[in-house]
Amino acid sequence: MGRYIVFLCPRCGMPRYAREGQKTAECFYCGLQIKISSAKIRILARTEDSRAAREIVEKLKARRLSYKRLP
Q1: Where residue 18 falls among pLDDT bands split at 50, 70, 90?
Q2: DSSP-derived pairing of the beta strands 24-26 and 33-35
Q3: Rounded to the nearest 5°, which phi and psi values hold at 12?
Q4: Domains in the chain: how many in total?
Q5: Secondary structure, 3-state, the chain
């Protein structure tokens, strides 16, 4: 097992997670190929396992999508 980071896509702002040390990740929402470096992305959380990272992403996604539904 490795550590995971949770971050936002710089283009669309949707949350994403990846293994710490991974060089790139694709945003599932807008398709951007994200270069993962601490200078280019804002890391929101670090976790010990993928399950915890996924839970954080789901909570952030639900919060973001609920803001879009407001009249």
Answers
A1: very high
A2: antiparallel
A3: -105, -15
A4: 1
A5: CCCEEEEECCCCCCEEEEECCCCEEECCCCCCEEECCCCCCCEEEEECCHHHHHHHHHHHHHHHHHHHHCC
Work out the number of other CB atoms within 10 angstroms of the CB of residue 21. 9
pLDDT single digits (tens) 19-59: 999 999 999 999 999 999 867 788 999 999 999 999 999 99
User: What's the pLDDT at 8?
Assistant: 93
- pTM equals 0.83
Residue-range definition of the domain harbouring residue 49: 4-69
At 18, which CATH number?
3.90.820.10
